[in-house]
Amino acid sequence: MICAVLAGCQAVPGEGPLTADIKADAGQSPVQIGRIDAAVFDIVKVDNRTAKLVSDYVVTALNRRFGIGGGAGRAVIGVGDQLKISIFEAGADGLFSTSDSKQTNLDVVVQQDGTAAIPYVGTVRFVGKTLEEARQAILTALKSRAVEPDVIVTSVNTASRKVTVSGAVGNSSQVPLGLVGDKITDVIANAGGPTGQPYETYITLVRGRKTGTALLSSVIDHPNENIYVQPGDQIFVARDPRTFTLLGAVKGNARVNFGASDLNLLEAVALGGGGNDAAIDAKGYFLFRYEEPDVVMSLLGTQRFNELLGKGMKPDRVGRYPIVYSFDMTHPDSLLVGQTFPVKNRDVIYASRHKAVDLGKFLTLIGTPLGIASQGAGVAYSVERIGN
Predict the structure, then answer these.
(1) Residue 3 has what pLDDT?
(2) To 10 degrees, what angle do helices 48-58 and 293-300 make?
(3) Under 8 Å between Cβ of 343 and 264
(4) End-to-end Cα distance, the chain
(5) How would residue 366 be classed by pLDDT, with cut points 50, 70 and 90?
(6) Other beta carbons less than 10 A from residue 129's beta carbon
(7) pLDDT tens digits, residue range 14-31?
(8) How many CB atoms sit inside 10 A of residue 259's CB?
(9) Beta bridge partners of residue 174, listed in sequence order
(10) What does DSSP assign to residue 287?
């Protein structure tokens, strides 16, 4: 009888999967699940190690991808740069001096082949040289031609040393880089600054074939994330109020705004009013996320990661992989661990209902008809007695 009741529970309408259902599908291929279109994922338990690994990665996304380097690097001349070259001579009647002036100023633009022409010197290669190296090259060529020459090379317009900043900033523009080097916040400030709050503003840096995205508040709070930009980088600033979705056996199913610079798992659940005491499975809190591949491999190990790829695990359009974090609220330390596990934009937090809820529904469904039948039998019996 009990087995029949439990089997019947499977046919009861429910609000999402049970804890056992989610765990049963984890790590299974679509064939094993019996659905050819099923997404392949794995479950990771949220504990101290998991929370620290995920938290550390969130605050070092740009540094991991691009590296902060050893500083600004060498500021070199590039194609399109405009230079002012001042040539001095000791004599009054030299190649570049007269009785009125002992200097000549030349404005040159570095051509596509990386060179520019200097009178009485010829073609000089500038690309890849610092201003001092360019100065020495011109000076060396003039020593046998001019009278005690000296040279000053000044950068007027650094067309090759610019970063494009666009999006939610005061003035989308190409920002020239200084000789001492500029960081992300420097070039954003030079473009008029962000138009939104740091905790809802995302920065995407494109460098060659690499792309990295980080929250502006994370860049501000963690100096290692405020990396040096390089000539040709593209920075896109987007205002996107961060939200997460809360579903399942909670007091309020909704899409919720962060409303703060950061949010942990416990705070996110509390924003939805907490779990429904009459229905919640305290062992069945799950956070569904598409996670960075580095994090997934660190959590699962390379062997398990490759195994899941073989079963059909697919990345999203930006290369992140599906992962489900499991959180057990029956453990006392969950109130500590939950404070250190960061919630990210577009996360889905699902609180599973307890299996007893389905059992109660099933008993209600089968009990209601029986009650009606019993009442009907009683009425028939009474009528029979009155008739007699």
Answers:
(1) 44
(2) 160
(3) yes
(4) 39
(5) low
(6) 20
(7) 568 899 999 999 999 998
(8) 12
(9) 164
(10) E
Burial (Cβ within 10 Å: 0-12, 13-18, ≥19) of residue 284: buried
Return the amino acid letter for 141: A
Q: Which residues, in sequence order, are bridge partners of residue 280?
A: 353
Q: What domains appear along the chain, each with residue ranges and CATH number?
A: 12-59+242-357 (3.10.560.10), 82-157 (3.30.1950.10), 161-239 (3.10.560.10)
- Do you know the residue count of the chain? 388
Backbone angles phi, psi at 294, to 5 degrees: -60, -40
pLDDT in tens, 274-323: 877 777 888 999 999 999 898 999 999 999 999 999 999 999 988 899 99
**Both tokens of residue 123?**
């073609």
Side chain identity, residue 99: S
Question: Is 0.70 topped by the overall pTM?
Answer: no
Angle at 86 between CA 83 and CA 88, to 5 degrees: 160
Write out the two tokens for 49. Answer: 């190690």
Query: Quick one: tokens of 259?
Result: 């409303």
Q: Which residue has the tokens 């046919």?
A: 11
Alpha carbons 95 and 142: distance in angstroms, whole number: 10
Q: Which residue has the tokens 């794995």?
A: 42
Cβ(102)–Cβ(92) below 8 Å: yes
Distance (Å, whole) CA 115 – CA 124: 5
Backbone dihedral angles phi then psi of residue 3, each to the nearest 5 degrees: -60, -40
pLDDT at 174: 93
Q: Cβ distance 388 to 30 under 8 Å? A: no
